[in-house]
Amino acid sequence: MRFxxxxxxxxxxxxxxxxxxELSPLDRVRRFADGGEQTxxxxxxxxxxxxxxxxxxxxxxxxxxxxxxxxxxxRRPWAQRWRRRRSxxxxxxxxxxxxxxxxxxxxxxxxxxxxxxxxxxAISEVVAGARDGAGVTAEGGRLTGKALFVxxxxxxxxxxxxxxxxxxHLVETPPAPVEMxxxxxxxxxxxxxxxxxxxxxxxxxxxxxxxxxxxxxxxAADSLGAGQVxxxxxxxYAKERKQFGRVIGSFQAVxxxxxxxxxxxxxxxxxxxxxxxxxxxxxxxxxxEATVMAAHAKAxxxxxxxxxxxTSTEVHGGIGMTDLLGLxxxxxxxxxxxxxxxxxERVREAAARAQGxxxx
Amino acid sequence: xxxxxxxxxxxxxxxxxAFLANHADEYRDGQAKDVLxxxxxxxxxxxxxxxxxxxxxxxxxxxxxxxxxxxxEAFIAAGAPRGIANQGVSMLVPTLLEVGSxxxxxxxxxxxxxxxxxxxxxxxxxxxxxxLASLQTKAVEDGDDFIISGSKIWTSxxxxxxxxxCLVRTEPNxxxxxxxxxxxxxxxxxxxxxxxxxxxxxxxEFNEVFxxxxxxxxxxVVGGRGRGWFVANTTLKHERxxxxxxxxxxxxxxxxxxxxxxxxxxxxxxxxNPVFRDRLMQLxxxxxxxxxxxxxxxxxxxxxxxxxxxxxxxxxxxxxxxxLAIDALGELGVLYHDGPHLRAKGRxxxxxxxxxxxxxxxxxxxxxxNIISERGxxxxxxxxxxxxx
Lengths: 360, 389
Description:
The complex is a heterodimer of chains A (360) and B (389). In chain A, helix 1 (7-23) runs parallel beside helix 5. Chain A contains 13 helices and ten strands. Chain A has three domains: 7-114; 119-202, Butyryl-CoA Dehydrogenase, subunit A, domain 2 (Beta Barrel); 207-354, Butyryl-CoA Dehydrogenase, subunit A, domain 3. Chain A is an alpha+beta fold. The longest helix of chain A is centred in the middle third of the chain and has 34 residues, at 207-240. Chain A starts with 6 loop residues before the first helix and ends in a 6-residue tail after the last helix. In chain A, strand 4 (158-162) and strand 5 (168-171) form a beta hairpin. Chain B folds into three domains: 9-83, no CATH class; 119-226, Butyryl-CoA Dehydrogenase, subunit A, domain 2, CATH 2.40.110.10; 244-388, Butyryl-CoA Dehydrogenase, subunit A, domain 3, CATH 1.20.140.10. Chain B starts with 6 loop residues before the first helix and ends with a helix. Classes of the chains: A alpha+beta (360), B alpha+beta (389). At the A-B interface, helix 9, strand 10, helix 10, helix 11 and helix 13 of A face helix 3, helix 8 and helix 12 of B.
């Protein structure tokens, strides 16, 4: 038994960190955020060269190349290094294709694994609850209705859509996405209207549950990484900034804020790791554990993420609020992740239900 | 990352489970019927004192974090009492193993493990709490002995202990961290007076101990004269591990879940109230985080910071679990002492009050935050500490 990143994962962590520092420095992030680009093909290409899009595609060349990994996502490093990208890191949409036919898989998985195609995901209504009359109905191979908070829709070659019953569908001619401007200018959320749009059903009973659990773990990891960055920056700033003739990091009032952030983040890291492990190795854990841990990770990182985001900003003083410093990109990412695909209260209810703690 | 059990480990797990099933009539409600007999049985099977060498009365197994975890989980699942985890077992024994003389190890470790000798800890003084290094209890050399005078406070189990491990100032003129020695003192030595210290719980969980010309052989010093500060830090490290033990926290959470499943208000289970259920889930996430943090500490050599946060977070979490249990019980939650409606012998209120002492003791939460920020995050030390050390 070993509960730690493997040597391979640490190597990936380091190389991914180097690649992202080059591909996506803060001025590139700013250009994306302020310039209204819908996709960032330069960054995507760079990551595709590392083989990352294929990590969740079973049997792909990339998956084979990284076959020594367990689990296939090194969550912490990705979360930490990958925060600046437009997309979600390794496309998690391929998980939905596990339930598809051999033909569907053959058609899409190689392209998704190679990064030549990307997939959007429209499952918000059945996971987080329907708002403003949204919801998609499937009938006779066609989808009708509205989907909100669709992830990665701009430029997507295919869409994974959940209908009102939770069944998944594959859409190869996605309707044009309408941007839903949100606090995090590095993530594009969209509204999509289906009007008799052709769709193929995706089989597999647990397709939506697996996709949801994966998304919850990834969102938790993303907030963990963002929180870690915010702590690191607060500590670095507190060691430099002087007031009253001392660095502010020598005042207990400031040190203790930093200690509280670290005290929340360290155990949360272990929770995210375990949730990822349980997701990847359902045979090694109790049947409900993957969902319970994914939900707990998502909700808990939402709570402590909010604490770290405001505390780090506060440690920075007024400069922490400025656009110039750019700390707000992580602040907003944490804020987005908290609500996306279910706020903490809703997700915790799912954790309780998965354990049989909710009366039928 | 691999948490699977090998076939060998699965066999081991089954052995532990079978042991607990075979001896199920020797414990009830998490308590052993005969504590000392249970302890001897656990040591004989390697479920207590597992990695302590046989020569000193332990089981003598190689350290194995997975087996330790399997044992802990099986005991939690069975509701079986773990071995004795008092200050002697958890703090003195590891310290003696690290820095004790051969004579000291042979004489004290075995009886301590078997529960025959109970220890108390003489660290804090009325004027030396968080600033422990300012302690004033003095030991003056007299032939082969020390003559000890002064007083200690917060000495739990002093009334029941046969022995104390104690910090005294042996070199009054040395820099303050270098003038302290770690001494083993028999509690029946003339000149020792123990006074119970009643707390807000209504019980006396602590004592004050007064020393008036107490004669102790110099041979009772552990780790060398003037080295007491460093020896004590070894012990504190073990204490903090004990105070934040995630297995104990998980067991407490399971009790809380039972309360919420069985207690009803207007015929409705507490668990079916969505507000209480949400609060329970919030704490459960924290308990799991601490549990996996513990797993990581055992096997990940990059887990330095993870280790430093255990005492702070674990004690706070225990306190929050007690608080939620009291809220879930509602008006029943204020009952205490005795009475037909009293639940769990008033344990939740007792925990809620006494746990404040654990948040404060063993290094206050504020001292823990100093440690986390200074050693874990590399932030500047307190100017006053630097000036004084």
